[in-house]
Amino acid sequence: MPTAMVTGGGRGIGLAIACRLAQEGYAVSVMDLNEPLEVPPSLTRGRPSDFLFVKGDITSAADRARYLTETIAALGDIQVLVNNAGVGPSIRADLMEMSEASWDRVLSVNLKAAMFLTQAVANRMLTQTPQGSKRGDIINIGSCSARTVSLNRGEYCVSKTGLSMLTQLFAARLAQDGIYVNEVRPGVIKTDMTAAVKQKYDALIEGGTFPVARWGTPEDVADAVMSFVGERCLYTTGSYIDVDGGFHIRRL
Is 67 annotated in the active site? Predict the structure, then answer.
């Protein structure tokens, strides 16, 4: 059975991705600071041994190493890594007032952790025998903020722009080894992260900012992730899918 790792998989987008991977026949390993409030039946499919939860801090090198070691010990070789763990600023401060502490926190979780977990998992994948046409898939969960300015959360925008470059760097480095690296860019998705600004986004949706006039769901993002994994997209790497209701379309 193939194995997938999903960071930040305890809730929201990460949990939806983990459930979809399980439904597609993957054993799933999730890392999060907090255990899921409830493990959906679709995540284990009645076989608890096909699911591993590792509690840990993705910014900790020791915790990342433990996550990989425990996943291999419990579930075997890794075929898929989804770098989903991410945070926004604790306080949405104007660019001229952003704190250095907020910058460090957001960049550490959203970019640095993804860089070094990808490095560790890719090195493991390089030692594995390919299954099918690929040796592995790495998918980064980016954001429409990679190219959309938000002056009160600049650290988040920079982190997601950096993640897009990281996608391209690893894609170029690993393609010859059969490891494909791609990105999914969610837009306005109904999660805990966006709950605090619900009224703002409700108004934008009602005002026609998004061609598909509704909130996105974690399941919408999971669907896009699945389009990249396994025997799909065999001539695509270093690319991305916008899951934003058409928000990226520039209009006059």
Answer: no
Structure tokens at 152: 């009160």
Tell me how far apart the alpha carbons of residues 18 and 8 are, in angstroms, rounded to a whole number: 10
Q: Which of 67, 156, 180, 240 is catalytic?
A: 156
What pLDDT sits at residue 131? 85
Distance CA 205, CA 110 (A): 27
Q: Mean pLDDT over residues 44-61, rounded?
A: 89
Alpha-carbon gap, residue 178 to 175, rounded angstroms = 5
Residue 115 has pLDDT above 70, yes or no: yes
In the predicted model, is pLDDT for residue 3 greater than 90? yes
Per-residue HEC secondary structure of 64-103 comes to: HHHHHHHHHHHHCCCCEEEECCCCCCCCCCCCCCCCHHHH
